[in-house]
Amino acid sequence: MSSIKVKPIKDLWAEFEVPGDKSISHRAAILAGLSNGPCQIDNYLPSEDCICTLNAMSNLGVDYEVLEAMEGFGPTSLIIRGKKMDLSKPEEEVDCGNSGTGMRLLAGLLAAQPFESVLTGDASLCSRPMGRIMKPLAEMGASIEALGEKPGCAPLRITGGKLKEMTYEMPVASAQVKSAILLAGLFTEGKTTVVQPSETRDHTERMLAYFQVRSVRDGNHISVYGGQMPESRDFRIPGDISSAAFWIVAAACLPGAHLLIKNVGLNPTRTALLDVLIRMGAQIKDVVLSEEYGEPYGNIEITGKSLHGTEIKPEEVPNLIDEVPILAVAGALAQGKMSIRNAKELRVKESDRISTVADNLRAMGAEVEEYEDGMEISGGKPLHGQVLDSFGDHRIAMAFAIAGLHAKGETEITNTDCINTSYPGFSKHLEAIKAGKSPK
Ligand SMILES: O=C(O)C1=C[C@@H](OP(=O)(O)O)[C@@H](O)[C@H](O)C1
Ligand SMILES: C=C(OP(=O)(O)O)C(=O)O
């Protein structure tokens, strides 16, 4: 089991790109695999989560050819040969690893196939709630049985078949649930509508449009028309702003630091982190360079300042949900209070991120009050180095590696293999930053 050791840095001056976006990579593997021909996908994220989705599509009969790979990880550039919506029964259980996105999106796809399949994953994934996709997919006509030890949890046995269209009001603001239903809706004969309680990331809608599938949005009502086949097209995945977030915070709270993150996704449903940091006094400039593939991407430039606390607004939460651990670290380093509420969803991520963030921040000397749906951090107390567990959660591991760059003494994060689920190469990038260089 690997670990990461960090000491405080005095300066940060770097320009680089982070690997491809995780959410968009999952969707590219699925939609290209359903399309009517070959699609070249560049800057695919070769993380364990996205490799699981690629393997899942391959188990469903989709061929792919690797053009380029990241050493020790997996493909970054590949040709996926679309199976024209005609998938085959997998010979074995489909393993989604640690990935909630992979499992929930694939469940939507498998619910519409005329065969039985089983979706499984690691211990963390098999303890996360799947009722949220089982219910709507069952209403569309699929039969899904939760075989896990915990009620409503994976493994999931899915007996798919002909689905009927429907309108579904989601009780939680979840892009994974929305996407599962839209993917299932592709295989119906009518119009399937998802009503989201508030804005959630819209990568599925954008990619459907890019692959020339007709979908419509009317406020928070998103509809897809069944019976359409995605048109094969090449796609380039922008850098992952959720990965960039670690470096953005590392630089934003270090007076005098300068950081340029290049070619990173700037989809407005993912950039709430920047708004919060700007309210905290950060100096951040983001510039959209292109929207060529249906997703805006560009550069983010950060100049380090002293930060002060803020309140994260309830409506911002879905658009920064994966950035809460690193924003909480920013809150602990800032002067004054930072409050995060309306974030109960954090309790059902790879770890219970309210308690794992609070435990680790307190161990470093911060004052944190925990609530059922969030936390309040009284910032400004100096953080001190500690041996901290990642709890097997990639975002916790990376957030506290960054905290260590701003703490007194040495910080060690144990159990850091999980970082490979979303950010292959993080440790290499961290080594470069520690050495005062730009990561390659
Ligand atoms: O659709 C997606 O790609 C994701 C949606 C979010 O989850 P929810 O849909 O559960 O909010 C997010 O936390 C996850 O990392 C990726
Ligand atoms: C919650 C996350 O991912 P997933 O739900 O796909 O496991 C994440 O990447 O922080």
Automatic annotation (TrEMBL):
3-phosphoshikimate binds at K22, S23, R27, S174, Q176, D322, K349. GO terms for molecular function: 3-phosphoshikimate 1-carboxyvinyltransferase activity. Its EC number is 2.5.1.19. Pfam families: EPSP_synthase (PF00275). Catalyzes the transfer of the enolpyruvyl moiety of phosphoenolpyruvate (PEP) to the 5-hydroxyl of shikimate-3-phosphate (S3P) to produce enolpyruvyl shikimate-3-phosphate and inorganic phosphate. Residues 6-430 form the Enolpyruvate transferase domain. This is 3-phosphoshikimate 1-carboxyvinyltransferase. It catalyses: 3-phosphoshikimate + phosphoenolpyruvate = 5-O-(1-carboxyvinyl)-3-phosphoshikimate + phosphate. Belongs to the EPSP synthase family. The active site is at D322. GO terms for cellular component: cytoplasm. The gene is aroA. Phosphoenolpyruvate binds at K22, G100, R128, Q176, R353, R395. Pathway: Metabolic intermediate biosynthesis; chorismate biosynthesis; chorismate from D-erythrose 4-phosphate and phosphoenolpyruvate: step 6/7. GO terms for biological process: amino acid biosynthetic process; aromatic amino acid family biosynthetic process; chorismate biosynthetic process. It is found in: Cytoplasm.
